[in-house]
Write a structure and sequence with these properties.
13 helices, 2 domains, 10-stranded mixed β-sheet, single chain, Arylsulfatase, C-terminal domain, about 475 residues, binds calcium ion, globular, alpha/beta, Alkaline Phosphatase, subunit A, about 25% helix, 4-stranded antiparallel β-sheet
Length: about 475
C-alpha cells in the first residue's frame, strides 16, 4: 500500500513540505539534557556498584538506556574537563589545560572564544539552550554562557559554590576578590545577581524543571551542571542524619549531597514522562572527573587514584545515556567512550557540518550503542596534564600512564588489571615504545596552556578546607 494514500496531499506537496529528505525511519533530532555532577566518584552510583548511598534515579536513568563502563572525561579536573565536553575537542588543543582562577577582569582566562560551544552549534538548528549550575569556563563577560551560545543561564561562574542562601553574601561578582569569595557570590540569572531561597541543588533542579516546561514545544538543550557533590561539604542536617550508618564524616555529608542531586534527577525524568517528552529527549548523566576521595569522601572503587591524577580513578567517570526507543534499554557498553562524544553525537543527529579548522575529537556513539557498528569508537583515549608532566593513553585494553611523582611510564592491561597494579612495562618494551610513539604523535598536535591556572595564583587559593578539592 502506498504509505501516502491516506493523505490527501499530492506527493509533490509533501516533498516541498519536507525538503530535508530525512530517511523515513529517522527520528527527529532529540532534545538534549546533559546532567553533569561535580567530583562524584566512579563507584558512587548504584549502577556502578555503590552499596552505601542509594541513587535510585541515576539508576533509573541508566536502566532506561545504556551504562558506559569505560567512559572518560576529557580531563581529571573540573574546568578543562568541561571545556572538552562543551567543544567536543580535547581542551589541550586550544590551551585549556588548567583550572580557571577567579579573574572577572581578565579576558584571557577562559574558553577560547574561537571555539564553538555545543549551545552555539545547536542554535542554528532551532534549539533553545540553558546552562544551570557551575560554569567554570571563565569569569570574564567574554566567557559568560550568554556570550557563548546559551539563551539562558542560572548559576555561578567559578569553580564551586556554598550551598546555603545565608552564606551567599556578596552581591556583585566583581566584588569577589578571589576564588573563596566567589563561592559566596549571589547566583546569576543571566548577568543579574539574584538571591537564592533554597539549598543550591534544589534551586538548580527548580530551574531545570521550569526550563523544560517552557521549552517543551521546541528542541532544547539543557546543561544541568550541579556543583554538588564538590566541596564545601554542606547539606541540611536532616538529610545527613539519614546516613548515620556511614562512619566517615565527609562521606556522610557527601551521601546527603548526592541524594539531593539524585532526587533532582528523578524530578527531571518525571517531568519528561509527564510532558511525554521522554522519547524525544537524549539524556546523558556523568561526573566531570573522578572523586577526590580525601576531600569529599567519594569512592572510585575499583579504580586506582582519583581527581587530578592520570590513573583511571582520575578521569574514568560514571556515565549513562538514555534515549527510549533509539538506544537499547538496560544494557552495558564496555568499549571506551569519551565525554567528547556527546557533542559529536548530537551534531550527527542534526547534520551539523564539520569545521575542518577545528575538527571534533568525539565520535557519534549511536551506531555503537545500537550495535549497528562493532569495534571501538576510539582508537585511543588521551590525557595530558602539562604542569605535572603526567599523561595517559589507552589503546584497546592497554594503557600507558606517567604519574607526576615518577619519571617512569607504566603499562597496564585494564582487561586483566582494572586497578592498575601490575606494571607490564619492563616485560613489554616493544608495546611500550609503540604506545609512547602514538601518544607523542597526538601530543605534537597540542599547544601549551594559554592561561595561568588556579593553583598558580597564591592569592586566589582557597584557605585550607574552605573549598575542598579544586
Ligand atoms: Ca570536578
Amino acid at each position: 500500500m502506498n504509505p501516502f494514500a491516506r493523505l490527501s496531499l499530492p506527493l509533490s506537496a509533501l516533498t516541498l513540505a519536507f525538503p530535508a529528505a530525512l530517511p523515513a525511519a529517522e527520528h527527529r533530532p532529540p532534545n538534549l539534557i546533559v546532567i553533569m555532577t561535580d567530583d562524584q566518584g566512579y563507584g558512587d552510583t548504584g549502577f556502578n556498584g555503590c552499596k552505601d548511598i542509594p541513587t535510585p534515579n541515576m539508576d533509573r536513568l541508566a536502566a532506561g538506556g545504556e551504562v558506559c563502563t569505560s567512559a572518560y572525561a576529557a580531563f581529571s579536573v573540573c574546568a578543562p574537563s568541561r571545556a572538552g565536553f562543551m567543544t567536543g575537542r580535547y581542551p589541550q588543543r586550544f590551551g585549556f589545560e588548567r583550572n580557571t582562577a577567579w579573574q572577572p577582569a581578565v579576558d584571557t582566562t577562559g574558553l577560547d572564544v574561537r571555539e564553538t560551544t555545543l549551545a552555539a552549534a545547536l542554535h542554528p538548528c532551532g534549539y533553545k539552550s540553558m546552562a544551570i549550575g557551575k560554569w567554570h569556563l571563565g569569569s570574564n563577560d567574554n566567557f559568560h554562557p550568554l556570550n557563548r551560545g546559551f539563551d539562558e543561564f542560572y548559576g555561578h561562574l567559578g569553580g564551586g559554590h556554598r550551598y546555603f542562601p545565608e552564606e551567599l553574601t556578596i552581591k556583585n561578582t566583581l566584588d569577589c576578590r578571589n576564588e573563596p569569595d566567589s563561592y559566596r557570590s549571589w547566583i546569576l540569572r543571566g548577568f543579574q545577581p539574584v538571591r537564592t531561597e533554597h539549598y543550591l541543588t534544589e534551586e538548580f533542579t527548580r530551574e531545570a524543571l521550569d526550563f523544560v516546561r517552557r521549552q517543551k514545544d521546541n528542541p532544547f538543550f539543557l546543561y544541568l551542571a550541579y556543583n554538588a557533590p564538590h566541596g564545601p561539604l554542606q547539606a541540611p542536617a536532616d538529610e545527613i542524619a539519614k546516613f548515620s550508618g556511614i562512619k566517615n564524616e565527609k562521606r556522610r555529608t557527601y551521601a546527603a549531597m548526592l541524594t539531593i542531586v539524585d532526587r533532582g534527577i528523578g524530578r527531571v525524568l518525571d517531568l519528561l514522562d509527564e510532558l511525554k517528552l521522554a522519547d524525544d529527549t537524549l539524556v546523558v548523566f556523568m561526573s566531570d572527573n573522578g572523586g577526590p576521595t580525601n576531600a569529599n569522601g567519594s569512592s572510585n572503587t575499583p579504580l586506582r587514584g582519583g581527581k587530578s591524577e592520570p590513573f583511571e580513578g582520575g578521569f574514568r567517570v560514571p556515565f549513562a545515556i538514555r534515549w527510549p526507543g533509539q538506544i537499547p534499554a538496560g544494557k552495558s557498553y564496555a568499549e571506551p567512550v569519551s565525554s567528547l562524544d556527546i557533542f559529536a553525537t548530537i551534531a550527527a543527529l542534526n547534520h551539523i557540518p564539520a569545521n575542518p579548522e577545528r575538527p571534533l575529537d568525539g565520535v557519534n556513539l549511536l551506531p555503537y550503542l545500537r550495535g549497528e557498528k562493532t569495534g571501538a569508537p576510539h582508537e585511543h583515549i588521551f590525557l595530558r596534564m602539562f604542569d605535572s608532566g603526567a599523561f595517559a593513553m589507552r589503546e584497546g585494553d592497554f594503557k600507558i600512564v606517567k604519574d607526576k611523582k615518577s619519571e617512569k611510564i607504566f603499562l597496564f592491561n585494564l582487561a586483566k588489571d582494572l586497578s592498575e597494579r601490575n606494571d607490564l612495562a619492563a616485560a613489554n618494551p616493544e608495546r611500550l615504545s609503540n604506545l609512547q610513539a602514538a601518544y607523542q604523535k597526538w601530543n605534537a598536535q597540542l599547544i601549551p596552556p594559554a592561561f595561568p591556572g588556579l593553583d598558580m595564583h597564591q592569592w586566589s587559593k582557597p584557605k585550607a578546607g574552605a573549598a575542598d578539592g579544586d
